[in-house]
Write a structure and sequence with these properties.
Layout (H helix, E strand, L loop, with lengths): L6 H33 L5 H31 L2 H24 L5 H29 L6
Length: 141
């Protein structure tokens, strides 16, 4: 039985979990955005449009990040891991925007965004470990 934790397996589990969590996160974020637009005093149409545009941007970057990360993990391609790591940066900034800097932040958003940030951080750490294991020379037996 191996004593070391398999980082590609851990990364795949995290990406699989995040693919379902992000679908729920994006749906809840969209519903809360519609709720805030309908029921809370409007900060302005421009601000609401920016928040919905950021949500669309987050959808595209996170979908690309999950796809590239899972594909890079299965194929053991370092370039795909690097692209997934690069897409983690805008995804985390937009999630931080929804957590800290948007006009109205609901308690549910704080909880969901905090979980998303924890998942992004864990996936980033494991992705770097997988990248190191891909490029590390294998010991000759």
């Amino acid at each position: 039985m191996p004593s070391a934790i398999s980082t590609p397996l851990t990364y795949e589990i995290l990406m699989y979990l995040n693919s379902f969590y992000f679908g729920m996160f994006a749906t809840c974020e969209l519903c809360m955005g519609i709720y805030k637009a309908a029921n809370l005093p409007s900060p302005g149409t421009n601000k609401l449009l920016i928040e919905f545009a950021l949500l669309l941007f987050l959808l595209s970057t996170e979908a690309g990040r999950i796809y590239l990360g899972r594909k890079g993990n299965l194929m053991e391609r370092g370039l795909l891991f690097l692209l997934a790591i690069a897409l983690t940066v805008p995804s985390s900034f937009v999630t931080l925007y929804f957590l800290l800097w948007q006009h109205y932040t609901l308690r549910l958003e704080v909880i969901l965004c905090s979980i998303q940030i924890v998942l992004l951080t864990a996936e980033l750490i494991i992705a770097v470990l997988c990248l190191v294991s891909i490029y590390r020379p294998s010991p000759e037996e």
